[in-house]
Amino acid sequence: MSKRVCQIIRLKPSAVEEYKAIHAAAWPAVLATLERAHITDYSNHHYPPLQLLIANFKYTGNDYEGDMKKVAEDPETQRWWKVTDGMQESFVEGAEGSGKEDPGGLFDLEEVFRFEGRK
C-alpha cells in the first residue's frame, strides 16, 4: 500500500545556495538507497519568505519504518546527512539530526486533501 509523506524543516539563510547546489548534483548512491527503500516521486521545495523546505515523496513499500531504518543505516546517506544537516534548523524540539530517533528534525505534516484525478 502506498502513502504520501510531506515534511518541513527550516533552511538556514546562509545555506540556500549550497543546499540548492548539492541537490542539483544529488549523490547517486543516496538516490539508489531511496529507491531501494521504495521511495519515489521525491521533491523538495523552498519557500524563501519563511525559509521553509517542504519535502514530498511517495512510499510504495510495505514496511515504512523498516525501510526508513535501512535508509538511516546506509553509510553514504549518513555522509550526505552530515553535509546537509548543518544547513537546516528543525521545528522539532530536541532534534538531534538525521539518522537519530527522529528523521533529522523533519516535521511530518498531516495530509488534509488529495485529488489524484478521475480514474
From TrEMBL:
<dbReference type="InterPro" id="IPR011008">
    <property type="entry name" value="Dimeric_a/b-barrel"/>
</dbReference>
<dbReference type="InterPro" id="IPR008000">
    <property type="entry name" value="Rham/fucose_mutarotase"/>
</dbReference>
<protein>
    <recommendedName>
        <fullName>Rhamnose mutarotase</fullName>
    </recommendedName>
</protein>
<dbReference type="Pfam" id="PF05336">
    <property type="entry name" value="rhaM"/>
</dbReference>
<dbReference type="GO" id="GO:0016857">
    <property type="term" value="F:racemase and epimerase activity, acting on carbohydrates and derivatives"/>
</dbReference>
